[in-house]
């Protein structure tokens, strides 16, 4: 396994849109193992492939206290079930180090994804998974948590992170 380098804002490579995975092969196993190693080493609860400069629709996550419940989401998609149901959560991002900001997102979504073998799954997530999966899918679209903030606040964060 290998620990990968995490890109930081405002690196333009964080703005690339990731393409769907089409082959569920050995190379996908290696990428997800390396992403999990990187996520654990950086103390993150999730990591999108975009953050390690791999522009495919791959997410890893571990929301457990014990850091022993690795999850892999390939080609995840979500639909908002109720756009009036919102949840505010103080988010952090490994690509925006040292910054936390309250972000408001839909709280009621329907999620589908494929596992490492290509099998499809569906779920109506709740709690932290709802927040984290939207944060990670944003990465795959080239979108960052700072995009929800005012341009002034974003510019301040850009200067702080670049120091
Ligand atoms: O480690 C992380 N913590 C976190 C906290 C609140 C909401 C989202 C996250 S994801 C983040 C890791 C990361 O940057 N994933 O893209
Ligand atoms: Ni992030």
> How many helical elements?
3
Total strand count, please?
7
CATH topology: Peptide Deformylase
Order of helices and strands: HEEEEEEEHH
pLDDT < 50 runs, ≥5 residues: none
Question: How is this structure best summarized?
Answer:
Helices cover 25% and strands 25% of the residues.
Structure characteristics:
163 residues; alpha+beta; Peptide Deformylase; five-stranded antiparallel beta sheet; two-stranded antiparallel sheet; binds ligand GNR; binds nickel (II) ion
Describe this protein's structure.
The chain is α+β, with helices and mostly antiparallel strands and 163 residues long. The protein has one domain: Peptide deformylase (Peptide Deformylase), CATH 3.90.45. 25% of the residues lie in helices and 25% in strands. Strands 1-2-3-6-7 form a 5-stranded antiparallel β-sheet. A hairpin with a 5-residue loop joins strand 6 and strand 7 (120-123). It is globular and about 45 Å long. Bound molecules: ligand GNR and nickel (II) ion (NI). The site of nickel (II) ion has 5 residues, from helix 2.
List the helices and strands and how they pair.
Layout: H1 26-41, E1 46-48, E2 58-61, E3 71-80, E4 86-92, E5 100-106, E6 109-114, E7 120-123, H2 128-140, H3 151-162
Antiparallel strand pairs: 1-2, 2-3, 3-6, 4-5, 6-7
Bound molecules: ligand GNR and nickel (II) ion.
